[in-house]
Structures are given as structure tokens and as C-alpha cells.
Amino acid sequence: MIYYAGLDVGSLLAKAVIMDDDGILAYSVRSIDGNFRQAARQVMVEALDKCGLLSETLNVVGATGLGAAFVNDPAVRNTEISCQARGIHYLLPQVRTLIEIGDQSARVIKLTEKGMVADCVVNDKCAMGSGSVLQTIAKVLGINVTDMGELSLQSANPVRFSAGCSVFAETEAISRIAENARIEDIVAGLHQAMAFKIGSIAQKIKIESDVAVTGGGACNPGLVKMLEKTIGNKLFLPREPMFSGAIGAVLMALEKVRMEKLCCSN
Amino acid sequence: MQKSSGLERASYIYTNRLQVARELKMQGEKFGGYLCCYVPVEMLSAAGYVPFRIIGDMNEPITNADAYLPSVMCPFYRSCLDLGLKGKYDFLDGLVSPHACDAAERVGLVWRSYFKYPFTFYLDIPHTVHASALVFFKQQLAHLRKGLEEYTGLKITDNDLKKQIKLFNRQRELVRQLYHLRKVEPPPVSGTEVLQLAVSLMGLPVQEGNLLAEEVIKEVKTRKMKPSKMKGRVLVWGCLIDNTAITSLIEDCGLEVVMDDTAIGSRTFGHDVELTEDPLDGLALRYLEKIVCPRTFRETGKNRANDLENRFSYLRKIVKDWHIDGIYMNLIRNCDIHGYEVPEVRYFFEEIGMPVLVIEQDYSTAALAPLRTRFQAFAESIEANR
Amino acid sequence: MFFAGLDVGSTMTKIVIRKDSGDYLSIIKPTGAEHRRFVDKVMTEALYKAKLSFEQIDYIVATGYGRVNVPFADTQLSEITCHMKGVNWLYPSVRTIIDIGGQDSKGIKVKNGKTNSFVMNDKCAAGTGRFLEVMAELLGMKLEEIGEMALRSGNPVAISKMCTVFARQEVLLRLSDGAALEDILAGLHQALAARIFSMVSKIGIEREVVLTGGGAKNAGLVKFLEERLGFSVQKPDEPLLTGALGASLAAQEIAQKAVADGAMPKQKNHTLTPASFFEEMPSVN
Amino acid sequence: MEEKKKKRSSAKTLQTAREAGYFGKKMLANTRMAVDEGRPVAWAMVEWWLGATIAKAMGVELVFPENYGAFCAASRTAEPNLDYSESDGFPSTLCGYARNCLGYARKLKENNFVIPAESTGGGMPKPDFLLACGAACDARYKWFQALGRYMDVPVWLLEFPQTGSKEYFLPGNKEENISYMVEELRAFVSFLEDLLGRKMNWDGLEERLDILFKTHELAYKVDLMRRTVPSPAVCTDFWALMIPHLYLPDDLEALAFYQRVYDEVKYKVDNKIGAIPNEKYRMMFSELPPWHTLGFFDEVAERHGVAFVFESWNYHVPPPLLEDEKKGITDPLELIARYSYHKFHHAAPAAKEYEIDPILFTAPYLEYVRDYQVDGLMFHPLMSCRPATYTLMHVRNLMLERFKVPSLVIEGDIVDLRVFNEEEALAKFDAFIETMDYHRELRKKEGLHW
Ligand SMILES: Nc1ncnc2c1ncn2[C@@H]1O[C@H](COP(=O)(O)OP(=O)(O)O)[C@@H](O)[C@H]1O
Ligand SMILES: Nc1ncnc2c1ncn2[C@@H]1O[C@H](COP(=O)(O)OP(=O)(O)O)[C@@H](O)[C@H]1O
Ligand code: SF4
Ligand code: SF4
Ligand code: SF4
């Protein structure tokens, strides 16, 4: 049997998948905790454990993400944009526009029917719109990031955030708490501010249906709902939205390896 | 609505200007959209259009325009195109876009690449006031006239034009009366109210507008004013303010907006068109030479002192006549025309002892809140210097 | 007569109580989230320290980011005016003030004891003291330490990202690459100094330059700013206090002018919710 | 990252391109020498040969602050000038060339108009007048007007009318435009005669024009040869080669040099020698380049086999004037007016055909993508120059819709290297390669020939 692994070493989380020719065998995710190398190693071990494999059995390892350089060789590295595109194409082939919300990134990628990148825009100057602000605010509010989505869905009256800055959003949240605003309204307001920003990034390329969301931000139903409202499209979610990058990393790596083989055998 | 006072009506029309236009359209009016104060509205009016000034909306986040214009350009014109893309200006029957600044020029041209109005015209405007420039500009106006005639199938006679010139001269004269009323302390009408009237006039048939302006003036003249608690009287310099959110913010912070040198204000209503034999001469002269805007190059003259005097002496007069205590320079981000001018204008004002506040704003009401501290501090420093 | 100035900043609340003779006393406390109630508490504490009752204070001016939340203030003034007054009182020769706070940073040009012009950045955390707060937290260090540490670097690591959030990530990567802590810190301080310098340059920097706000407490930042400026700057013994000091001076001016005009200085008749927790109060410094 | 930032200039593939920098230095040195010899000097905007040739025929030496801005940026010495202009109140959003120049002028003034010793390329001397222009961008006259703050010299604004794609074809309009330009040129000649106290040398002007047209003909032929696959020269070559044809076209040395350029390119075409070893993708660049990081183009050539086969419409010479249009013209001023007007409006027929506006910065691309068989466009929206940025999104839409040619957008600046993120740009490029592959297939399906 031939096995492949994909690693997406993000800025906050490291994600691994193990696949064979029939599909996905195991997923695993863990926090980076300031040490990319160790997190990458660990998350891989965990994923392998889940399907009872050893790292020696892996034929191909693909890596992507900010910390891809920290993945032990031999690994085939590719950029996040292409990997996200391949990943979502594998999971939801009808998708033509992908919104990826990671910890540091908010990207909008347009895809061809073959899962290639047709166009993309990235927030590379200002972090507003990316996921990291969620952690900060969750800490301030004393709640879990994972609960934010559900909470915000209960809000009827989102607080309006005036700062367009991820960092100052924290100060604003603190002031709103002091004014006794309801927690769900604050969270919903934050989601709204993020959705506006992501919406404005997305506007730079004309969105085509179907539209999907991936990345950690997609695990947040509140954010997803606000985003749907802002851009006026239905958003599709893959089953495991966090792993599209890792899956793409496998697929890209396979493409490369096969290409090379082809060239050699000729 | 009919019964309410002029000021109330101006405020209503200001707030609902698109809806008012749509209603008028149902009653059979045709609308000719135009950008900036450099388009001779007399011409549009003579061709049977209600001239409708296209402006942006500071309350509306710019979204659709992002796919057509880069984010580093003038947000005012981005907002204009954004509204266009969102269908807010779909009642327009035509578009005249002038070469006022780079932004006006490109946005007008990009606009008509996507929306095919039955009638469009791009009006080139020279940058100088040389004699040859006047000749050229008059030729451009003749092309506009001919284009309108061909499209409407109606002849625009000299008399038609002269009639419109008189009507618009009347309108400009009325607005100037209102400006003059603000020379006293306390001014009987606020900057916010004047802005509301100005914006209303730019979307109404001229005669209706004149009636409205007359009513407003009558009302203002009879107002009883209490001594004001305001901290100072300011002149607003810059491209334009088209939203009362800004004037209200300034007024809230204790400053009275009593005069402006902007394109929705004195640059639009400042000078009359001379009734020349050939009406195009008068129009060319007013629209090219008399409007004073930094987009037009004035000869440098003998030396720098001369140059500054040529360009800015009218500002000194405004400061004196309107008893100005401070200058608010409203710079819309990414504006080249005004951006290059800022240091010199500022220098000019400071030389005559005026405190100056320069703010580079993003054309968005959401971004106004943090400006409050700046206006407050400015008001405090004016009060201290007064 | 007694006057009070309160500067409710985003991170710190500062109070100055002064006598018409010019003597004054001050207190600085973290602002905390609920500044409305908290201000009462700090005020009570300040009064306690001054051995005065609330009624004895003739006039109160509030300033700072949270100035609207001081119900017992007689007047609110912008922090720009107050910083200018405070600094000008301490340094009559000052021409340019650079104030680096947690919520904003600003430059104020002073002429004849009056604000001549000013600039401010409060839109992006990258140009404010907040930038360093975030970094100190990330590195698990105290704000008080990072400046000194940055000064120990011989080889600053250039930080290429402007945004605070992205820069935080860049720092983590550099650490993983094995860069030295002090070099990273030096890079961060340099980046902030460059941004502040370029903002304040807009009003034209003239000497004397006085540095205030929390940022002035950071020796590294001060040095890198001086490098940029090409000369040395002044800083008050307690750089956090100038806003509150200026507010108290403004209070004095307003009250004395009112008295001279034969009016009652107090416009409002507010009360202070007495704080009943003296025992909780940390010892007065 | 740090190391990459240090690799500033690009290798350039043509021998002649490597030598072209000489002309930039020559221009600067000429003006300094003129000052020493008491001859008049002016700072001029690029005004597409409208007034420069006339001024030179009057014995004025010219230097172009735009070019100087690019020079400072490329040698990474612009930053202090930028800071210096900002600290005098000029907004940081203004044109990078302008801020560099304003900062430089301020220093010059503070040094009593003695060129500061450390100035890049020896520095620009104080001019006797400033030649501004009404074409293409507001900066072209507002910036020179603003220089009044530092130097008490007259500014002359040369008008350059600009027309929409529909208006270009209105009966009479074009001729009115031209005669307006001619009038303005006449006024300019009188201005010069007054200022310099001497008469125009008309014969000298005609000679210069003659050389100019010859240089430009060669430059145009070089452009045409670049349509060949594989491309014999790339953008980084062009940005060096443009100095002689843009700034010194009426200089005999430049003409001789262009003959060599022509020969070199011709040799490469005849022998099918590509500029880059393995040309896989043909791209076009729009509009003004990141002067501080031109090495970027070598990098993508190496990584992906990308050849930038055409670039920067506004720096190129136009196709030669039709004989019809030149026939019977005896007034050199009219010839100049027609030629410059033609530069900006030569794509008007294409604009009309496709019903698009504006003609400048937009319509020429309709022809280029086809003629140069372009697989993708790289857009470089500038933080500080709007005129060359305004239409990028628009062109991007047009090219995708009409020709299925995709674009890559990488933000940056001409001068300010702080806003260009090379790492990020390379990552985007990696993804864009796929995008080009995909659109190649699309074009095939749609029956587009490349
Ligand atoms: N279960 C979850 N529910 C809601 N949000 C989540 C969840 N898990 C992660 N997130 C959010 O997703 C972000 C991380 O996304 P990810 O795509 O892993 O980023 P990166 O690849 O940069 O590490 C975090 O900022 C966090 O806010
Ligand atoms: N002891 C200290 N050492 C170094 N930096 C400090 C210190 N105290 C405060 N700071 C800096 O000052 C900033 C807060 O300044 P402050 O003037 O109190 O702001 P605000 O007025 O907004 O409360 C913080 O962001 C931090 O960067
Ligand atoms: S506004 Fe905030 S999130 Fe945006 S760049 Fe600045 S610090 Fe970063
Ligand atoms: S702000 Fe400037 S760019 Fe915008 S419309 Fe006004 S003059 Fe033109
Ligand atoms: S086109 Fe752009 S770069 Fe050139 S002068 Fe104008 S604003 Fe500056």
C-alpha cells in the first residue's frame, strides 16, 4: 500500500493528514506553542498513530504553511495558496471561490474547474480580518474561541466596532464590557467587523459561485454567517475545513513527484 | 412636505436626494448626471435635463468599486462609482464627466466603459487660463452643445442658453446672499444647513431650486439668534465636504463653519456667468477662469511672492470679511491636487496669523469618531489664541 | 483654592491635585476595564492622599481617552491641550512634544505656550505604545524591561512587517531561527521609533523636544528616537503625568478667570461616589 | 530576506542595456557642466517630447526629476528625501518621484543651492526654470508648482489636451486639439525667448527633430522585434534602454547607441536567442516598476521561466506618424504637437472598436496582449502614484473578459521600498503560474491564437 502525508504548519496550529489512494485515513491538529519544529513533528506522529502507521511507511510528504520550512525532510513544499486551492477542489469540486481565514491570513482564491488558482487576493498589509483577533478577544471575554460562533448567533444587536485594527479591537471590546454590553453582541460585532474587512478583500476579485470557506475561521459558524450576509453568497463548508491546506499539500506533492517520475522514465 | 419651511425641505431633500430625483423622474423629468463643479449646468438644463451632481456617500462602505478601482485613489470618487455600481444612480439619462482632476477624468471614463448611458460626454478642461486655452475650452463646449442637440434632436439656441444662464446666476446669487448673512456673529445659519441647501440645489430643476433658496433666505433673515457659545469661526478649505456628518462634528466641537473654499460651496456658487453676445464666451470664461480651484494653474509671475498672491489672495479677503478665527483644511486622502497645495496654503494662512488644522480623511463616517479629539483640541487652541 | 486634573488614558489613569500656590500631588493607577466606577475610586484615593474632601476641590478638568466617563468633572478638554499645558509648564522652552501612549501617539508643536499644530495616530496600533505592549506580552517580559534589553543589542534584526499582528508572527519566526532576544527587541524598537518619527515630522520638529507618555519610560525607544532625530530629548521625571498636570493647570485657569469675572467657578454640582475600600488601597507611593 | 533586499539591480540580458546607464549620468553631468559654463538649465517633466526638444534647441540643458527619482530609488538613497519632504507637510501619499524631488530641493535650498556633497549621481543643479506639463497626471504640474516653496524660478506649464475614445472621432476635435497644442508651443517659445533673451534657432530645432525621429524609429523597431518568441529582450533591459529614447532622443550619441541596440536585438532574433534561457511564460508588466527591487524579475525568470516581453506603455515610443499626417507640414511646432498627441492617442481606433475608455494607460493593452502573445499581466499598483494605478483594475477586467489573459496584482511603489514585500510577491507568483496555465487552455478553447 502507498501512503501519503500532508502537513500544514500554520502560525497557530499545525495540521496533518494521512491519505492513501482511496482517501483520507486520519487527521490531527495541535497548537504550535511557539515551536514550529516540534509541533510539526508531533502532529505527524499523532496522525500516524491514529491510523496505526509508521513514518517509514510514508511514500510522499507534502508540506505547506508559514512554518513549512520546519518540516523534516524529505518533504515537498508548496505555497499555501495553491495548496488551499487543491485541497478545496478535492473536498468540494464545484467550488470556484475560496475564502480562507487562518490565524494571520484572510485570503480569497478563485479556482478553475481543475482546482488551479485562477486569481487571488491576500491581506498582506493589515491583519484585520484574520483569525488571530478572535483569540485575543476570547481571552478578554473569558470565553473559549470554540464557543464564539454559537454565542454570536444568539445576538440580535451586534455592537459596532469602529477601529479597523485587530489590536485596538481588543481595547474596544474592553470598553464595551465596561458599558455592560452583552457578550454575544460584542462577539457578533467583532465577527461583523471581520466580515466587512474580508468582504472588501473579496470584492477585489469578482466572486463566482460556489463559494466555500476554509481555515480555522470556518470552524466558527458566527463568522461564517456574518460573512454570508456581507458578501451575499451562500457559503459551503467542507467537512473538515481546517485541513484543506494539508490535503492540498499532499496533492501538490504527488503532482510534483509524478511529474518528476514521468520526466525520468522518459 | 410642501407646507414645511425651506430649511426643513432642504434638509429633507438633502437626506433623500436620490428618492426625490426618482419621484421627479416619474413626473417626466430627465436627469443629466455630472461630476464636479466644472460642468456647465446651464448647458444640460438648456437641453432639457435636470443637472444632477453625482456625489458619494460617506455612510456606505465602498465594496463593489474595489473590483474596478484601486484602493489608493481618491475615496470620494471611489464612493461615487461604488454607488453607480450598486444601481443608486440608475435614474440618470446621461453623464458628463470633466477633466477636473485625474480622479474625475479616469472615473468618468471608467464609468462609461461599464454603463452605457444613451448620452455621455467627456469634457476636456485645460489646465491653464491662457488665451488659447479659452479658445480651446469654448470649442469643447461647442462639442458638448452639439452632442446634446444631436442626441435630443432639439436645437439649443443662444437664447435658450442665456435664459438658463440668468436662472443659474440667480441661484448662485441666492447662495451667496446666504454666505453673506454668515458674516455676522453669531451667524444665523449653520454650516450644516448651508451644506444641506447646496446639495439639494444640485439635484433640483433650477427654478424649483431658486424657490427653495429664496425661502431659506427669508427664513434665515427672520431668525432670532442667541449669543453663541462657540469657540471660534472657521473657514473650510479643501476639495469638498458633501456630508453633514463632518460639519456637525466640527460644530459639535464648538466651531462655527462660516465659510468654505470647496467644490460643493463657494467654488460652485462663487461667480456669475457674464451674459456675453455669444453665451459660450461667458460660460468658457466662468468655468475655466473664474472658478478658483488648485486644479487650474495660474502663472507664477515675477517671483514667489507674486505667485502666492496670484493663487491665494482671495483667501485673505475671506478671512477678513467673514471674521475667520481658524482654518480647517479638509484633505481627502490620496488627493494630488490638494495634497501638493497643502504646505503652501498652510504657510499662507499661518503668515496671516490663522491657526490651521489639516486632516487627511478617508471619506467614511465610520472613521470620523477618532477625529473628534482633533477638532476639540483645535477648538481649544483657537479659543486660547482668540 | 484646589484644582484637580484627571487623565483617563487607555492604560493608566492619572490624577493631579494642585494648590494655587503651585504645589501638587499625583497618583497613577491602571485604568482597568470599568473606568466609570474606577475613576471614582482613584479620585477618592487621591483625595485621601491629599487629605482633602471632594467639596474642597474648586474645579476639575478631565482629559484623555476616557474623559467622557468622568461624571464629576466640570469640564472636559482634549488631551492635546492638556499635554501641551503640562509640558509647557515644566519646560517653558519646549517647541515640540512627542507623546507616546497606549492608544495613540501624537506630536504637538508649541508656540508661545499655545498649541500651534499637532498630528495624531490612533488608527493603527503599529505606531503606538501598544505595539510594544503586545511584544512584551508575547515575549513574556515586563514592559519596564524591554527597552533596557533592546539597548544591549549590537545587531538589531530588521522587522519587515508593519502590522502589529504580523510583526508578532515575524518575531516568533525569528526566535525559531535562533535570533537573539535583544536583537529582536532592538529591531522592534527601531521600527516603532521610525514610524513615530515620520509621523511627527509632518509638523516640523524643532528643539526643545520633550517626550511624554508611557513610551518615554522606555529607554530603548528614547534612544532610537534620539538617533532618528539626531539630538537628545528631554523627558519629565514622570512622563505619564503631563496630561493630568495640564488638566489641573487648565482647571486653575478656568476657575481663576471665573472668579475674576465675579462668577462661581463650579459649573456643575456633581458628587463623588465615596469609595469604601481604603483598606484595599495599595500603599501610596 | 535581508540578503535578498540587498540584491537590488537586475542583471540585464543585453550588453547595450548594461551600458545605457551612461546616458542618465551624462544627462546629469551635462546640466552641471552647463551651470559651470553659465548656460541655462531646466528641470523638466517627461512630456513626451513636446517641449524638451524645443528647449534644447534654445540651448537649455534638461534634467528630469522623475528619472532622478528612479535613480535614487534604484540606488536606495531616496528614503531621506522622502522623509524630508513629508516633514515639510507634503502628504506621504504623493508621488514618490515628487517627494524625492521636493526633499532634494529643500536640501538644495538649505545648502544655498550648492549641490549637497552626498547627492546621488552627483545631484541636479538649481534650474533657471521648470518645465511642467498637463499630460497624464496632475503631479506633472502641481509638483513643479509646489517647488516654488524652495526655489524662486518660473514654472511653464505645457498643455496637453486629452480626449475620450468617443470624442477623439468627433468632427474637428482632433484638429482643434492639435492647433491648441501648437498655440501653446508658440507661447512657450516666446516665454523662452523672453527668459533667455535670445531668438529661437529654428534650423537647430529641425535638425534635432530629425535625429529624434531616427532614434525613435529604431526604438520602435526594437519594440516590434520583441514580439518574437523567444523574446530577445525583457523588461529589465527596456527600463535601462529607455533612458536615451525618452530623455535624449535628439542626441547623436543616443542615435548611434540605438543603432547598436537594434543590431544586438536583431542578432538575437535572427539566431533565436531568447533573453532568458528557458522561456515558458510571456508576461507583460504594468506600469511603473519597483526600481529598488528589479532583481525580482531575474528571480521569477529563473524560477519559472517567465519572460517579461513588454511593459510600461507610457515609456515607449509610439508607432511612427503616418506619412499622410506629416505631409505638407512645414512648421516644426506642428510636427511636434502631432507626434506627441499621437503618442497618447495612437490606440484610439482600438479603444473605439472595443468601446472602452480611457485611451491612455488602457487601450494600448488591447493591442499589446495580442501582438506580444502575452500569457499574463503583472500589475504593480503603486502606493504613491495614482495615474499609473487608476486603470489597473479596469485593464485587468478587460483583459480577462476579452482575451482570457489573467493578471497578477502585487502592490508596491516606485520609490518607497518599505511597501514592497518580495517574499509575499514570490509566493503569489508561484500560484499565478497555475493561473496562466489554465488560461492558456481557455484561450485555446475560445480560438484565440496564443
Ligand atoms: N474550533 C474552532 N472554532 C472556532 N474558531 C477556531 C476553531 N479552531 C480554530 N479557530 C480559529 O482559527 C484560527 C486558526 O486558523 P488556522 O487556519 O489553523 O490558521 P493557521 O493556519 O494560520 O494556523 C484561529 O485564529 C482561531 O481563531
Ligand atoms: N514602565 C514602563 N516602561 C516602558 N514602557 C512603558 C511603561 N509604562 C508604560 N509604557 C508604555 O506606555 C504606553 C502607555 O502609555 P500611556 O501614556 O499611559 O497611555 P494612555 O494615556 O493611553 O494610557 C504603553 O503602551 C507602553 O508601551
Ligand atoms: S490597523 Fe491594526 S491590524 Fe491593521 S496593520 Fe495596523 S496594527 Fe495591524
Ligand atoms: S479630493 Fe482631490 S482627487 Fe478627489 S475629487 Fe477632489 S480634487 Fe479630485
Ligand atoms: S505618473 Fe505617477 S509617478 Fe509619474 S509623475 Fe505622475 S504621479 Fe508621479
UniProtKB/TrEMBL annotation, chain B:
- Which cofactors does this gene product need? [4Fe-4S] cluster
Key words, A-Z: Iron, Iron-sulfur, Metal-binding
| Coiled-coil regions listed | none
Among InterPro entries, the record links this protein to: FldB/FldC_alpha/beta
One Pfam family assigned to this protein is HGD-D
Q: Where are the transmembrane segments?
A: none
**Which GO terms label this protein's molecular function in UniProt?**
hydro-lyase activity; iron-sulfur cluster binding; metal ion binding
Protein family (similarity comment): Belongs to the FldB/FldC dehydratase alpha/beta subunit family.
- What is the protein's name according to its record? 2-hydroxyglutaryl-CoA dehydratase
TrEMBL record, chain C:
Q: Name one GO molecular function term.
A: iron-sulfur cluster binding
Please give the NCBIfam families that the UniProt record associates with this protein: CoA_E_activ
Which co-factor is required? [4Fe-4S] cluster
- Give the species this sequence originates from: Desulfotomaculum copahuensis
Under which name does UniProt file this protein? 2-hydroxyglutaryl-CoA dehydratase
Domain called ATPase BadF/BadG/BcrA/BcrD type: residue spans: 5-251
| Keyword terms, alphabetized | Iron, Iron-sulfur, Metal-binding
Keyword Kinase part of the UniProt annotation: no
* InterPro entries to which the protein is assigned, alphabetical: ATPase_BadF (IPR002731), ATPase_NBD (IPR043129), CoA_E_activase_dom (IPR008275), Dehydratase_Activator_Redct (IPR051805)
| Pfam families in the cross-refs | BcrAD_BadFG
CDD domains documented for this protein: ASKHA_NBD_BcrAD_BadFG_HgdC_HadI
TrEMBL record, chain D:
Keyword Lipid biosynthesis recorded: no
Swiss-Prot/TrEMBL cofactor(s): [4Fe-4S] cluster
A GO term, aspect molecular function: iron-sulfur cluster binding
Q: Give the highest taxon in the source lineage.
A: Bacteria
- Family matches, as Pfam families: HGD-D
- Note the InterPro entries from the entry: FldB/FldC_alpha/beta
Keywords, ordered alphabetically = Iron, Iron-sulfur, Metal-binding
| Family membership noted in the UniProt record | Belongs to the FldB/FldC dehydratase alpha/beta subunit family.
What is the protein name stated in its UniProt record?
Answer: 2-hydroxyglutaryl-CoA dehydratase
Q: Which organism was this protein described from? A: Desulfotomaculum copahuensis
